[in-house]
Design a protein that fits this description.
Layout lengths: L3 E7 L7 H11 L5 E5 L17 H12 L2 E5 L2 E2 L2 E2 L1 H11 L11 E8 L5 H14 L2 E2 L5 E4 L14 H22 L1
Parallel strand pairs: 1-2, 1-3, 3-6, 6-7, 6-8
Antiparallel strand pairs: 4-5
The structure holds flavin mononucleotide.
């Protein structure tokens, strides 16, 4: 079997991002048969339909999404919703012909944030994913606090319980991709 290629997309751009820490941990602990890459969003501009020639960072993002069998969306919570960098990445991808980059693609969501561990933002993101026709895996969910010591000063995930949840989610995503393929 070819390995499942998963693309991580992180809604936070800061160097010590805890959401990026979640994705890094996932990449380092991907199960056998799964490879995780992480998209570079730092240079991706806001979606603008006037940009007929797509900027290089957008082209790279779209190519990464195209080759991915599944998406792993790391979703910070900004003002009760998903962060703009993540929404912007999905907006760019959604404008390709017939939404072919996203429609039917399996995906899972994880997040690190304030009091509710990004629950509000994640459920908002799920609503967005309905329109995009991404096939989200429901459980296990990964909610975590960015402020309770679960992450070190560089944003690395150090909480063993959350680490276990991420590993469990990756296994579930792998099964989900296999089910959708069969
Ligand atoms: C503009 C802004 C709005 C935020 N609003 C919320 C919020 O509504 N709920 C919440 O739990 N955290 C909120 N936070 C805190 C973020 O969830 C927190 O900074 C999180 O760690 C960001 O992820 P990062 O570590 O990956 O950068 C907000 C942060 C910013 C910058």
């Amino acid at each position: 079997m070819k390995p499942i290629k998963v693309l991580g997309i992180c809604g936070s751009l800061r160097a010590a991002s805890t959401n990026m820490g979640l994705l890094r941990f996932a990449r380092e602990h991907a199960p056998a048969g799964m490879e995780i890459n992480i998209a570079a969003l730092g240079e991706v501009p806001f979606y603008n339909a006037d940009l007929k020639q797509k900027p290089a960072a957008v082209q790279a993002l779209l190519a990464d999404i195209k080759q991915a069998d599944a998406l792993l969306l790391a979703c910070p919570e900004y003002n009760y919703s998903l962060a703009p960098a993540l929404k912007n990445a999905l907006d760019w991808a959604s404008r390709e012909t017939d939404n072919y980059l996203l429609a039917g693609k399996p995906a899972a969501i994880m997040g690190a944030g304030g009091g509710m561990g990004t629950a509000r933002a994640q459920y908002h993101l799920r609503q967005v994913c309905v329109f995009l026709n991404l096939h989200l895996y429901n459980k296990p969910e990964v909610f975590s606090s960015a402020f309770d010591g679960s992450y070190d000063e560089k944003g690395n995930l150090i909480n063993e319980k959350i680490q276990g949840m991420v590993i469990e989610q990756l296994g579930a995503l792998q099964n989900w991709v296999a089910r959708l393929r069969s």
